[in-house]
Amino acid sequence: MLLLVGIGMKYEDLTLQAIQAIESADLVIVDTYTSIHGDIDRVIELIGRKEVRLAKRSDLEGVGIERIVEEAARRNVAILVPGDPLIATTHEAIRVEAAKRGVKVKVVNGLTVVALAFSRSGLHFYKLGRTVTLTYDPSSVDYVLRVIQDNTSRGLHTLILLDLRTEESRAMTVQEAVSMLLEADKQGLLAERVGVGLARLGFSDEYMVADLVPNLGGYKYPGPPHSLIVTGDLHFMEVESLRYNCGLPEKLYERLVKRL
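Below the sequence we write its predicted structure tokens.
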């Protein structure tokens, strides 16, 4: 069997189902590149004496997928993924390959930043438009702006996941993301748009701040992972939530309330 196991943001996020899946595995593969996990050493301690492999991107893509599925045909293989194993990751290719070869697959979902970003900030999840990732590749910036424009034209919020390159010890910050977006935003799409800067959601030092997007780069954030929300049309309760949950500046709050 192949087990795709979400382990959340930190050790305390492990579900009973995730622990049971780990205990049932003969081989445990730990994804070390998809996202940052706060307590990966503690998770590995939980695994105990089982065979453990720390996987880089190349281990879970291309020919790496074939090797994993071949092993899962012979014994129980668990892939541990920070957050959720199939939300904003590339691991769907592994599940599909296993299904093609008749290998049973079990998915154990985990707490993910996609859910946390909205439950923590108070923005309405049903108004989430297309989610997008901003990478260090300059060509991604224009695409992200097009997605924001499309979402906001329909009144929807845009969740922007920021590039993580753990093998290079690089993690994009809100400050970097805002700088890249503003430099490319020739039409002023973001000038008066409210955004939310998010850092280390689910961790003890999580930080959220709401302000106009151009101002978000001026705040001091804890370390990565970071993400960013560009809001669409705001409901009165969303404005209230941003005020009390995310420190929306009072003058901006008053402006937004007048528009409603």
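The mean pLDDT is 93.
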